[in-house]
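User: My instructor asked us to take a sequence, write out its structure as tokens, and then describe one feature of it. I'm not sure where to start. Here is the sequence I was given:
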Amino acid sequence: MALPTYKAISRNLHRDLAVESEARSFRMIIDEPWSMGSTGGVSRDPFQDGHIYDGGTAMIIAFASKNHLGLNSELGSNISQSEYFTVVELEGAKLKKVRNVENVYFRQEVDAGAFAEFIKETGAEKLVVSSVENADITKELLKGNVSVDEAREGRIADLLEDFQNSETR
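Assistant: Let's start with the prediction itself. The structure tokens for your sequence are:
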């Protein structure tokens, strides 16, 4: 039986040591640690921060959502245009719990520090959104050990399945 093959693309961003990698519907930017001069606005080294999902531990992911349909919602285009966050708890490779959290910043100006605290209160270790409209938001989330992944738009259930499949192989 042949195993499926997935294409991954990595490229140097020509900003210090920052590297961007894409696989399926996920994009991750890896930068050097803050203590060694990270350029900010991009994800720190996920191995150092423990954000690589190994399929054997619990993980909580907050997906920006266009509406309250949970896993059937489409991924939100950015934070201020996402009415909800679909918060997914994984235990190993299994889906443990899904809940919707109303976005208090929907159609409002987003304060980076307050937003980072709001996401931390959900317990999320990772935020997935189509785009982050403000680099300060990413910086504040990273300071709180919440990684930020920009994904292509699509149904959250499909993005989650892609994530689970790519991380458990």
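For the description part of your assignment, you could build on this observation: The first strand starts at residue 8 and ends at 12. Try explaining in your own words what that tells you about the chain.
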